[in-house]
Write a structure and sequence with these properties.
alpha+beta, 3-stranded mixed beta sheet, globular, 2 domains
Length: 151
């Protein structure tokens, strides 16, 4: 493992735990050069879950794509990285429980539900891409419905 602080590849494992559902192993590590502690997660790479896109295409699930979308939505917002990583982890668990395929719609709606409670601006940013608004009116309609739900 490469230390996220200094880039050193030598570390020691301080603690190892299995998840409740045995899907991954969590390891606390300490860099032998700078002393920084960090967490890694290990999971088997045996299942290839497919995501069914809106147009019917299928592609392999990639958690990094989900994280990029989340980070774009919360950019410059006061949201801790830990919360974004937790949402991504929850999505990974949701996807892992699916049976070989999952629709992007299910993933997108899950993300929007989480962002709606976390940060309204991040929600609107994500929704604008997810719903692929074609006009300002469509965008404003979503904003109005969001405001009505808050009242």
């Amino acid at each position: 493992m490469k230390c996220p602080e200094c880039g050193n590849i030598e570390d020691k494992v301080i603690e190892t735990r299995e998840s409740r559902d045995n899907h991954y192993i969590r390891r606390r590590r300490e860099c032998l050069k700078c002393g920084k502690r960090f967490t890694t997660y290990e999971k088997p790479e045996d299942t290839h879950l497919m995501v069914v896109k809106k147009d019917g295409r299928r592609e392999e699930f990639d958690i990094d794509k989900v994280k990029k979308g989340l980070y774009r939505a919360v950019e410059k917002r006061p949201i801790p990285v830990k919360q974004i990583e937790q949402i991504a982890f929850q999505i990974e668990e949701m996807v892992a429980s699916a049976d070989k395929e999952i629709a992007t719609k299910a993933i997108g709606e899950y993300i929007m539900d989480k962002l709606k409670t976390l940060d309204k601006v991040a929600y609107v940013r994500f929704a604008s891409v997810y719903f692929d608004f074609k006009s300002l009116e469509e965008f404003l309609n979503e904003l109005h419905s969001l405001l009505k739900k808050e009242e």
